[in-house]
């Protein structure tokens, strides 16, 4: 079982962004020692509970603090950025850390339209319909072209592996057509997982990058010594998502705060529907959940994301999962 890590640098309610970012560095070092293959961070904006907004900057710090683990973006939301800037940033990261950087690209802005407009500065630039053209422009910047008037330095000669990320069928089909590896966000779009996986494989064409499809699934996993403790640790992520859905995003609360919250029946139904596909429990429960996910999808790799309040509990969850993969 090939395992990797997706981290959002969660900001705890009783902490701050500095604490969250230092926790990310600590987690990267811990998971590298445990044998995880990749460590990706995600781009989010205008979220008081997530500190990974300047994704390329954070990737540089994580790569500098580690030695072997691959480090990358899960992902860079391309509608938010000019392709030239992304090429410059990731060309520089690859030049600093050759052979260790992944460039995962997403199609959605990853936030609401008002925030996306503040990030990009133009409504015309935000259309996801332009994604294939933006992606082609980005990829071109990494290749030499003497006739090109504008070049991305130091991108030429320092091209990291490209991944397409998705939560529906569009990126799955595009990744297949381009012969690129595909990472699907099963952790928040489980209902679309099997159709997207099938579409990726059906549309796949061999390329200079891959001879056959390569699929990675993002999976939300919380492991603890018992099912009861794991469910208790999962409470904060549920309350955080519920608050986000109501338009009032919050830092990651404590398990005690989540347990004391007065959930309505409708809240509980929503959380069950939203988090029912997450893998939460004791080592045996988690093992069965991961094995079933792999059997159902034939994924080549699982990228584990673990949103719990306490850093020690988060590291412990990754330790349990690593032991299960041995």
From TrEMBL:
Highest taxon above the source species: Bacteria
Name listed for the protein in its UniProt record: LLM class flavin-dependent oxidoreductase
Domain Luciferase-like, first and last residues per copy: 1-300
Similarity annotation: To bacterial alkanal monooxygenase alpha and beta chains.
